[in-house]
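Reopening this ticket.

The earlier resolution said the output was attached, but the attachment link was broken on my side. Pasting everything inline this time so it's all in one place.
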Amino acid sequence: MNSGCLSPEVVIFTDLDGTLLDQRYDYESAAYMLNALRTRGIYSIPATSKTAAELIHWQDSLTFKPPMIIENGAGVVWPEGALSEEDDVDPDFKTGKNYAQLCNILAQLRIEFGFDFRSFDDMTPCEISQATGLDRHAASLAKQRTASVPLSWAGAPAQLNDLRAQLEHRGLTLVRGGRFWHVMEPINKGQTALRVHRRLCRMWGNTPVILACGDSENDLPLLQVARGAVLFPKPDGQFLSITQQSVVYARSAGALAWLEAVNQLLHTLELNPQIAACGAQAVSVEKGV
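Inline output:
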C-alpha cells in the first residue's frame, strides 16, 4: 500500500464534496494532488459520505492505493491484498442494519408519523443529479449504498427532532451532511478513521500525525480526533465551529485551495514544512495552476 515510499510522517483524512472537490467534481486534479503529496511523505485518505461504487474507480487512479472511508464511516474500501484473513479489521465494516433494512424503517416511520422527507430510495438518478450536480452515471453510483440512507427533509424543524428521537429509539442516528441528512448506525468518520489509522500504524511500524479536512457537521467527529484541522466554507460562506487549537480556514473548496490550506496547516504545526512547500510548488507548476 505504500508504493515503495517511506512510511508517511503525516496522514490526512479528508472529506470530498465541498472540501477536496468543488462543484466541478474534478477527481483528476484531486488525484494528482494526493499522488504528489504521497511522494513527499504525506498520505491522504478520503473520508466521505460517498459510496464504494462512486470511489472504487478513482481509487485506481491513486498511485498509493489508500483505504477509503465511505458512507460517513459506515464502511471502508481497502485496496486488494491490504488485509489478511487473520486481520482484525473487517474490510466491509459491518455495523448492523443494511441499506434495505434502513429504508424499511424509514418507510414505516413515514407511514406512522407522517414525516415529510424524500430519501435516495425515493429519488431517481435524475433527481439526485439535479440536487447534487452529479452527472446521471455518478448519481446512479450514489444510489448504490450499503449502510446509510441520505434524505432531503421537507418538514418542520420540530418534526425533524421527532424523527431523530424515533431513530435513536431504534438504535440509529441522524447525521447532517453538506446537502442531505444521513440515517445510519451510530458510527462516525472519526471512529472509523481511528480504526484505519491503528491498522496502518501496525503495517508501517510508525505512528503518523493525524490531520483532517472537512466542511459539514458529519465531519466534526473526524476533525476532533486530529491534531490539526482544515475547515472549508459552507455554501453560505460560514465555517463550522470547533475547539481545535490548530485550525486553518480554506478560501474555498477544490483541489488547489485544499492543497494551499493543508500546506499552511503543516507549516503552522511545523510538520515537515520544507517537503510540504516543495509539494505545493511542484503540483502548481506541473498542473499549470
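Reporter confirms the inline version is readable. Residues 189-204 form the longest helix (16 residues). The first strand starts at residue 10 and ends at 14.
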